[in-house]
């Protein structure tokens, strides 16, 4: 967890606008005795702290009292909101600040506990009274939803089990990659060596989750990267691809927002940021495709399936960088169910026949050359001329068709153009997965439990 500190004294509060930075982080309010009064996090420190000083007329009484006692502000800037979330929880747990009311209320704060005193390490959610003397806890988190959303996100990177009983049969989450290896299976094995091997692998997963919750995601990412390189050298390309997907999922975890207050900011401020991102995208892509002169409507496409079954496609739409959910479309693939490229072509052909749907200025496909080629074939088939780019799953490279070949752009992870492309791609991925899971639930007579959406 990379971070840097900034101390602001009361005599400088009148210059906060120029002092504060627009980065994710944690803000710590202290009194004249340098005692911590309150700890909070934000995806934009500048906006959040200024709210305390510019909204005094609408401030709750307890917040008004808090601000009367604040003599200094310590800012810890973090790389991502994910880091800020974990750091906020750690600071509240360590210092129990007076005005962090949630941390004082046994009914509100939720902790994540990892137990090692069982035959298989176990992850569970507990309240303060259940873990007061337990050192293997992480939190408190501002709400149970935040804690549960956090673990759902981590579970897409590192699978773990939530089953309460072991039956000898793999749980349903094993089938969708959220529980592997499954304790329900390996704890019932008769072969001690195989059971020991699986338990070791599962315990390593739990250890990595500990590292992530401790703010050491980079260490986990390095482990995945080294494993990916080793698998590739040994020509175990399928295993290498799985490690690559875990690395990408870990990257996405650090771009996920956990802060509802982000939507309280002025709409014009958000619109201005999105407009600047779109302009930068237009400027960059126009260098490689002269047809791109302005980007107003973007459509992004993704294919999702479960081992070749329940194959679906999604189309998400962003207008000036803002997702327009009313224009989203989903497709149940009818042919070529186990061929992503053919499925992509089928989806694009079906979409392009709907001329009543406004055509986009840019098409983004989740995938590399094969998926781009399928999209281009569909466009050629219906004689429509729209620029297409792809974002490769291997290492987040931007793929741009150029004549009979392809150009590859490797942008830094903090590049605004890559951010907007990844954000739209992730939304297409989410929408496709959501539809596939709906179909999966319907295929089970009694349906699937709510946690299947993890």
Mean pLDDT: 84
Largest sheet report: 8 strands, mixed
Number of helices: 16
User: For the terminal residues, how far apart are their CA atoms?
Assistant: 25 Å
Helix % is 40-55%
How many beta strands in the DSSP annotation? Answer: 15
Shape: globular
Q: Which structural class matches the secondary elements?
A: alpha+beta
Secondary-structure map:
Elements: E1 3-9, H1 16-19, E2 25-30, E3 36-42, H2 45-54, H3 61-69, E4 72-78, H4 81-95, H5 101-104, E5 110-115, E6 122-127, H6 128-131, E7 137-141, H7 144-157, H8 172-175, H9 183-186, H10 192-213, H11 217-233, H12 237-253, H13 267-285, E8 297-306, E9 309-319, E10 322-323, E11 329-332, H14 340-352, E12 362-366, H15 369-381, E13 388-391, E14 398-402, E15 405-409, H16 416-442
Parallel strand pairs: 8-12, 12-13
Antiparallel strand pairs: 1-4, 2-3, 2-4, 5-6, 5-7, 8-9, 9-10, 9-11, 13-14, 14-15
What descriptive keywords fit this protein?
single chain; 454 residues; alpha+beta; eight-stranded mixed beta sheet; four-stranded antiparallel beta sheet; 43% helix; disordered C terminus
């Amino acid at each position: 967890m990379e971070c840097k500190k900034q101390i602001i004294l009361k005599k400088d509060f009148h210059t906060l606008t120029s002092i504060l930075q627009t980065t994710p982080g944690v803000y710590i309010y202290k009194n004249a005795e340098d005692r911590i009064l309150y700890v909070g996090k934000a995806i934009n420190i500048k906006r959040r702290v200024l709210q305390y000083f510019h909204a005094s007329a609408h401030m709750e009484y307890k917040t008004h009292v808090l601000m009367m006692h604040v003599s200094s502000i310590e800012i810890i800037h973090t790389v991502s909101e994910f880091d800020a979330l974990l750091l906020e929880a750690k600071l509240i747990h360590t210092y129990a600040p007076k005005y962090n009311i949630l941390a004082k209320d046994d009914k509100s704060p939720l902790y994540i506990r990892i137990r090692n005193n069982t035959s298989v390490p176990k992850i569970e959610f507990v309240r303060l009274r259940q873990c007061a003397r337990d050192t293997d806890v992480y939190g408190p988190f501002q709400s149970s939803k935040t804690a549960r959303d956090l673990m759902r996100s981590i579970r897409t990177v590192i699978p773990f089990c939530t089953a309460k009983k072991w039956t000898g049969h793999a749980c349903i989450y094993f089938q969708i990659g959220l529980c592997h290896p499954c304790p329900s299976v390996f704890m019932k094995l008769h072969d001690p060596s195989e059971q020991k091997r699986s338990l070791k692998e599962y315990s390593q997963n739990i250890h990595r989750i500990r590292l992530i919750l401790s703010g050491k995601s980079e260490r986990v990412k390095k482990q995945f990267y080294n494993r990916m390189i080793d698998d590739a050298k040994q020509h175990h390309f399928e295993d290498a691809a799985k490690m690559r997907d875990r690395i990408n999922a870990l990257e996405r975890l650090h771009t996920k927002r956990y802060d509802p207050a982000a939507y309280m900011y002025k709409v014009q401020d958000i619109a201005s940021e999105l407009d600047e991102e779109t302009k930068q995208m237009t400027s960059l892509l126009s260098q490689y495709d002269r047809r791109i002169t302005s980007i107003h409507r973007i459509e992004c496409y993704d294919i999702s399936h479960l081992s070749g079954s329940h194959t679906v496609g999604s189309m998400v739409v962003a207008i000036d960088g803002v997702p327009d959910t009313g224009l989203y479309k989903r497709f149940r693939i009818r042919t070529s169910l186990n061929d992503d490229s053919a499925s992509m072509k089928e989806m694009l052909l079906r979409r392009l026949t709907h001329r009543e749907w406004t055509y986009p200025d840019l098409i983004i496909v989740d995938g590399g050359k094969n998926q781009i080629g399928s999209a281009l074939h569909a466009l050629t088939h219906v004689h429509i001329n729209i620029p297409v780019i792809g974002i490769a799953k291997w290492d987040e490279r931007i793929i741009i068709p150029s004549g009979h070949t392809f150009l590859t752009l490797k942008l830094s992870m903090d590049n605004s153009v890559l951010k907007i492309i990844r954000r739209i791609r992730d939304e297409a991925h989410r929408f496709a997965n959501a539809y596939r899971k709906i179909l999966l639930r319907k295929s089970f007579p009694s349906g699937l439990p709510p946690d299947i959406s993890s």
